[in-house]
């Protein structure tokens, strides 16, 4: 048996999703004529209480477009030191936007208004202009840790009071919502931009959407074009996103349950020194031996995983992990 726990990006379209893709009505999206892309954008924006949306090939692109829209060269953004926009987007903050980054050390990637406030630069020609705060929910490097809206409200209030934009890297926002019970539609009250990935836990093969007000999305279309992200008959892919939003949101709790089962068993193993608290579908655990040694041993049993540090391994549960595979992993540890 093979169990692929490397990421929730490895999922394949379900039969229902494939049927939706093949039957999609398409047009040229760069001309704004793809009915299915338009429908996805309208649906996603409405779900989060935002005015408009733009469909892009990846979450990296939606994040980088947002940063470009909300900053100017010589500005500075604030993010946690684990943030995907900083660690895993190829240096795009500097390359695409000419912006510096102020990194903070949140608890498992979670920032607070009290942490952010003293890091906002005063108006001084020696300092970059602080213009943006970026949050990530869930936090990948925090082991799927979650912000609640109660955490977010004071940060949004601070940003509004100090004239900063607030962007959410919501690559796994639906996992966070499944855990916290917060409502997606309430998020639009607090954020200037929200990136939502469709190709992780939701199981679509491609794509993310950036949500914002109409003026921001109008400018975002120009930046998407510059970055080479304008697609043509993209409705075949957008149809998968619509199907995912309609059919794969509620089931995320199953992935969370699977992660809890595996985490409990990991905590019993003598070769594991620590398991981070599991809130959603990501398990981070530390090992006695180097991670590459443990990964080789796991792969010999058909279990694929990835390391995030020299002695830390990540498991991610997802749509294509079934109960019998969870049972196999538990027995194989």
UniProtKB/TrEMBL annotation:
Domain of life: Bacteria
Annotated Gene Ontology cellular component terms: cytosol
A single GO BP: glycine biosynthetic process
Keyword line: Lyase, Pyridoxal phosphate
InterPro entries the UniProt entry points to: ArAA_b-elim_lyase/Thr_aldolase, Low_specificity_L-TA-like, PyrdxlP-dep_Trfase, PyrdxlP-dep_Trfase_major, PyrdxlP-dep_Trfase_small
Pfam families to which the protein is assigned, alphabetical: Beta_elim_lyase (PF01212)
GO terms of molecular function: L-allo-threonine aldolase activity
Sequence positions bearing N6-(pyridoxal phosphate)lysine: 200
Cofactor needs: pyridoxal 5'-phosphate
Family: Belongs to the threonine aldolase family.
PANTHER family assigned: L-THREONINE ALDOLASE (PTHR48097:SF9), L-THREONINE ALDOLASE-RELATED (PTHR48097)
Name by which UniProt lists this protein: Threonine aldolase
Organism (species): Mucilaginibacter psychrotolerans
Higher taxonomy: Bacteria, Pseudomonadati, Bacteroidota, Sphingobacteriia, Sphingobacteriales
């Amino acid at each position: 048996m093979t169990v692929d726990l490397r990421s929730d990006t490895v999922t394949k379209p379900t039969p229902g999703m494939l049927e939706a893709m093949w039957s999609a009505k398409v047009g040229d999206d760069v001309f704004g004529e793809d009915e299915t892309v338009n429908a996805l954008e309208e649906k996603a924006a409405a779900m989060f209480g935002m005015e408009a949306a733009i469909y892009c090939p990846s979450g990296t692109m939606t994040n980088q477009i947002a940063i470009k829209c909300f900053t100017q060269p010589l500005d500075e953004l604030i993010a946690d030191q684990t943030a995907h926009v900083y660690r895993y987007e190829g240096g795009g903050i500097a390359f695409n936007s000419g912006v510096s980054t102020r990194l903070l050390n949140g608890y498992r990637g979670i920032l607070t208004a009290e942490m952010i406030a003293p890091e906002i630069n005063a108006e001084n020609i020696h300092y970059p202009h602080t213009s943006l705060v970026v949050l990530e929910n869930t936090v990948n490097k925090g082991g799927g840790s979650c912000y609640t809206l109660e955490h977010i409200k004071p940060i949004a209030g601070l940003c509004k009071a100090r004239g900063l934009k607030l962007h959410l890297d919501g690559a796994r926002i639906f996992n966070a919502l499944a855990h916290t019970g917060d409502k997606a539609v309430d998020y639009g009250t607090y954020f200037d931009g929200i990136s939502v990935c469709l190709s992780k836990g939701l199981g679509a093969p491609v794509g993310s959407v950036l949500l914002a007000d109409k003026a921001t999305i109008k400018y975002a279309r120009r930046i998407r074009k510059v970055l080479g992200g304008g697609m043509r008959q993209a409705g075949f892919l957008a149809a998968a996103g619509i199907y995912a939003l309609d059919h794969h949101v509620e089931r995320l709790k199953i992935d969370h349950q699977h992660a809890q089962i595996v985490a409990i068993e990991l905590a019993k193993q003598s070769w594991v020194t620590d398991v981070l608290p599991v809130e959603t579908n990501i398990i981070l655990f530390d090992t006695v031996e180097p991670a590459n040694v443990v990964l080789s041993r796991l792969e010999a049993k058909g279990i694929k995983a990835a390391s995030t540090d020299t002695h830390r391994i990540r498991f991610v549960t997802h749509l294509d992990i079934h109960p019998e595979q969870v049972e196999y992993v538990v027995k194989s540890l």
